[in-house]
Amino acid sequence: MLSRLVLLWLGLSLVNVAAGANGLFCSALCRRRMSTCRSTDACAGKFVCRGQYWPAYGTQKPQAVDWSRTDIGYYFVSETDATGFNIPKGQSISALKTFVSTAHSKRKKAVFTIGGWTGSRYFSDRVATSGNRTKLVAAIREFLVKYDFDGVDLDWEYPGSQGIGCNKVRATDSANFLLFLKSLRATLGSKKLITAAIGASGLIGTDGNPLTDMKAFGAVFDIINLMTYDVGGPWSPTSGPNCPLRTCNSDTSVMQVVQAFKKAGIPASKMMLGIPAYGYSYQLKSSTLASKRIDGYVSRVYQAKTSTTPKGSKTDSNATSTDVCGVRSASYSGMWNYVDLISEGILSSNGSVGHMGFTRYVDSCSATPFLFNPRTKVMINYDDAYSAGQKTAYAMSQGLKGVYTFDSAGFNTAVLKSIRNKLDA
Hints:
Elements (H helix, E strand, L loop, with lengths): L11 E3 L3 E2 L5 E2 L1 H6 L6 H5 L4 E7 L16 E9 L4 E2 L6 H13 L3 E7 L7 H4 L3 H18 L3 E5 L17 H16 L4 E7 L15 H6 L2 E5 L26 H10 L7 E6 L1 E6 L8 E3 L2 E3 L21 E2 L5 E2 L5 E3 H6 L15 E5 L4 E6 L4 E4 L3 H13 L4 E5 L6 H11 L2
Parallel strand pairs: 4-5, 4-21, 5-7, 7-8, 8-9, 9-10, 10-11, 11-21
Antiparallel strand pairs: 1-4, 2-3, 5-6, 12-17, 12-20, 13-14, 15-16, 18-19, 19-20
Helix pairs in contact: 5-6, 10-11
C-alpha cells in the first residue's frame, strides 16, 4: 500500500483487552457498553482496533511484532499473476507459517494480503470474467485452508485507475470487483474476514470518476482500510506531510477521506484509518522556512523543493534497479521509518528534539511533525506519537472501527502507546 513501493502489512491491535466469558477479547470501550462479552456478533461491531502491516520482505520476525496490541495480523504480501496469485521470491513460506502460528498462539487472527503497488498488475484480468472470478475465489479459499488463515485482504492498486505503469486497467474494474466480492463472500461465508485497502480517491467508476455510492461494497467487506497516506512525497510539487490530518495545501487529508467514504455509504464502523510509520525527505531550495496561514493555522511544511530526493535511512539506495514493469531507475526513495530517525541519531530517543543540525517542528495545520536542517536544506516529514494520537482521536470521534499502521517495524512503543491511549479513551 505505499504508493510507488511494495507494501507489506500486519494487523489490527486491540488495546487494554480483557477476556469475556467465552474467551472473546473486547476493548475497554466495548466492555463499558456491555456487562459481558457474550458473543462475537454482539461485540464485533463495537471493537476498537489498531492495525499494523507486517513486512514479509523485511527483517522483522513475526515473533517480534507487538502482538499484545494486535487483533488481526495482515501478512503482506502475495501478488497477482497471470493465473491467480503467488508468494514473491524472497519471501519465506516458513516465515508465513510462523506468522500464522504466532498470531494464533496469541489468540489473534491472521489475514493475508493480495496486491500492493507492484502486485496488482493482473487484478483486472482476474476479475474480468465469470470464469476468472470463480478461479480466483477457489484459489483464495484453497490458500486460506492450506495455511490456516482467518481471512483475505485485497489491496488492489487501483480498480479503474492505473497504479504502476504496467497494470491492466478496465473501465469496468470496480463493477467486476463487486461481482467477485459477492462470489467470494458466498464461498467463504461470514466466519472468514474479507477486508480491503482502498486508496484515498475511493473506487473509480466507468466514467473515470470516484464512485459516489459504495454501499454495495460496504455490505460485503468486514473492514475497509483507508489508505490515507502517501498524500505527499518526492513526487509532489512541494514538500509536505505524508498523512495530513486536515486539507491544507490543495491536497487531500484524513478528514476529507473519512467524510467522502461516509458520504458514499461506507459505515464508519467498518473503516480503519491508515497511519504511516514512515516519512519522506525533501531537498528544499531555501535555508529559511516560509510561513503561510491556512484556515487560521500557520504552516511551514509546504516549501519549494528541488527535483533531487535526499537519501533516506541507511538502507535507502540509489543503485540502479528494475521494477516489475521493466522500468530502470537509480534514485533514492527518501524514506525514513520513525525508529530509524531515532536509531541514526537525527531525533532524540523520546522523539521531542532534533539532532545533527535538525530542528523539530510541528505543523499546526496538518498536525504532523517535521525536521529541518538549514545548513543542508533537508526536510524530513514523518508521523510520531503526537500526530498518530491526533489522527486516532479523530478516527474515534467519527465512530471508526479504529486505525492501522504501516508497518509493524516502523514505530516504537511510545507511538503505539499513544495510539492505544486514544483508542481506549
